[in-house]
Amino acid sequence: MVSRLLFTIILLVSRSQVMAGDVTIGTDFPGGNALVERIDGVNVRLAPDLRGGKPWFYWCFDAESAKPGRVTFSFAKPSMIGVQGPAVSMDGGRSWRWLGDEHVESTKEGSQFSYEFREARQRVRFAVAIPYLQNDLDDFMAKQVANPHLTKSELAKTRKGTTVDLLRIGKPGPGVQSMMVTARHHACESMASYVLEGFLAEAMSDSVAARAFRERYVLYAVPIVDKDGVQAGDQGKNRSPHDHNRDYGAEPLYPEIRAIQDLADEKDIRFAIDFHCPALRGDIHEAFHFLGLGLPHVRENLQEWISWIKEERPQEVMAPLDFLVDSKKPNAVDRRINSHYMATRPRAILAATLEVPYTQVKPALDPAMARAYGAGLLRAWVRTMFIPQGHEGQRGEAGYAKFQQFRTEFLKTYRSQPKVAEAMTKAYLQADSQPLYRVESKLLLATLRLRETQFAEARSLSEAVVRDANATAQQRAAAMVLQVQVISSDPQSTSTDVDAALEAALRFPHAALDQRARCYEAVAEFDRKHHQFRRAIEATHKQIQLAASYEVGKLWNQIATDHDELKQPALALKARQEAVQWLRPRLTPVPVSVFGGMMVTDLFEALQGIPDTPRTDLRAAGQMVLDHKVVSEAKKEQIRKALAAAEKK
């Protein structure tokens, strides 16, 4: 008993390397953090090293297996493994990927993941999230060393004497406003750094947006606030007596926080965005969202920026949500927090905290996507007219509401009144018109020309949008989808033309899942028109991987129909069975929505196509359609006739 207790104590106190049985665990590297509770052969029990802080979930460790095979790593509740499983590195932390949730399972005690070591003494690094350390910032800075728009200096020295970096992008001058961005007030919140890196890279680039940004702003950036904590592998959040993001005010504990406050005074900072990560998983924690103090002018400016973020974000990632606290609520203001402190400074225009999820369910958030999101934030920032307190509601043509109104009115009109819709774009097609409206007019006209089967002009207009440096990410992605639809609809197109258009669209970075799904849908329709049903089936299978859940049953039914065309009844039957298997769990209870109406109809059609469907099942499915308030009367009449015909058999 004594020896076992001594062994456990040794495991718990060691932070560098623990070896027992077949596995060695190490944390002696920047960012390393783990306590080994026990090692039982190839089963390792771990916990985060809180280092005096409150319970949280950060861990990062090396593991070496004495022999090839599976090793299981487990943690206590609450779950300390994210929705994409752990991050894994095969090269000592230089590159990372998500292991995937298929390697994770819940247990009575908590959660665990397994990893298959390929060879003896293989060393693999695991982390709760993809890390971002000082060496990552150094690598980023090395790529920008000759950038004329970037100046690096020292903000302050930490209590341990470590230099905290201050970056400046652009130059002060007449009419130039000062902005500050910060990250890693909480050491473990690493994905936020990748978003910030993308923001900084875009700000100092030579893009149209970057040049406009530097004409109007000078940007001060503190990429890693808690530099000592990041390197030590601390969680940082909830550190005793308080963490860096509860240190603002009259007497900061941390020199770097004092320096940020002094810089804000010296440079008259009027805009401040603080980059964070939320909790590990669940609900809003898997979504981008803003926190902060919802002063009326701050909230209005934030909502305007969010509207433009929708246009400029990577389209496969959602726009951030607004969760600013109502400033009128009792005790709403907490000036110990960066975003509250900055929002309540004199002449502040916008200050908020952006919470970046560690990752998300679909698609997985990785460093490349996070950097793209940061670049989109910068482009959206440039498109936003920020209004000081007391001048709200004065955006006019420069506001997102006006732009969205133009787009919406066209889309409402072009089917029924094409000439009226076309006239709406005429003024914006002039060379001296606002670039954003000019690009949108070309995109909308391309949509109209496709409807009018004027394929050459539709293709030319959509290509012009893709090439235009003034186009938003949403406009370019929509134009790429439109090109696939145009080429797939053109009777003169060949399969080679369609494949080339699809390949180009799929190369477009970070298109939304539904945008890619529509590309496959257009290709499948082309193939069906040309009786190439095998190709159509292949495209529809790929569409299913991207489609919304309410569309999947319909797509399986379509695959079944294609197999019928190929005289493949067994495969058609299997496809309809897949539709039934997908739909039934999602129809208990039946959603009272348009989507619910679509799915109950798809279920009936799938069951109708399966020869041995019991009449009771078919009647029940038919009744679901007839009872649904959203399904059209014409569709219900079809179902009644089908049920009557089935009863006669």
Helix content: 40-55%
Major sheet attributes: 8 strands, mixed
How do the strands line up in the largest sheet?
12-13-15-14-16-21-17-19
Low-confidence stretches: 1-15
Mean pLDDT: 94
CATH classification class of the largest domain: Alpha Beta
End-to-end distance: 77 Å
CATH topology group of the largest domain: Aminopeptidase
Outline: globular
Question: What report would you give on this structure?
Answer:
The structure is a single chain. The protein has 649 residues and is of the alpha/beta class. It folds into four domains: 2-127, Sandwich (Immunoglobulin-like); 134-383, Zn peptidases (Aminopeptidase, 3-Layer(aba) Sandwich); 395-531, Serine Threonine Protein Phosphatase 5, Tetratricopeptide repeat; 548-649. It is built from 22 helices and 21 strands. An eight-stranded mixed sheet has the order 12-13-15-14-16-21-17-19, with helices on both faces. Strands 1-2-5-11-7-8 form a six-stranded antiparallel sheet, with no helix packed on it. It starts with a helix and ends with a helix.
Write the layout of secondary structure elements.
Layout: H1 2-13, E1 17-20, E2 23-26, E3 35-40, E4 43-47, E5 60-65, E6 69-76, E7 87-89, E8 97-98, E9 104-106, E10 110-117, E11 122-127, H2 134-143, E12 150-157, E13 163-169, E14 177-183, H3 191-203, H4 208-216, E15 217-222, H5 227-232, H6 255-267, E16 269-276, E17 289-291, E18 293-294, H7 296-312, E19 321-322, E20 325-326, H8 338-343, E21 350-355, H9 367-383, H10 400-413, H11 418-426, H12 435-451, H13 455-467, H14 473-489, H15 495-507, H16 513-529, H17 533-546, H18 549-565, H19 569-583, H20 594-608, H21 615-627, H22 633-648
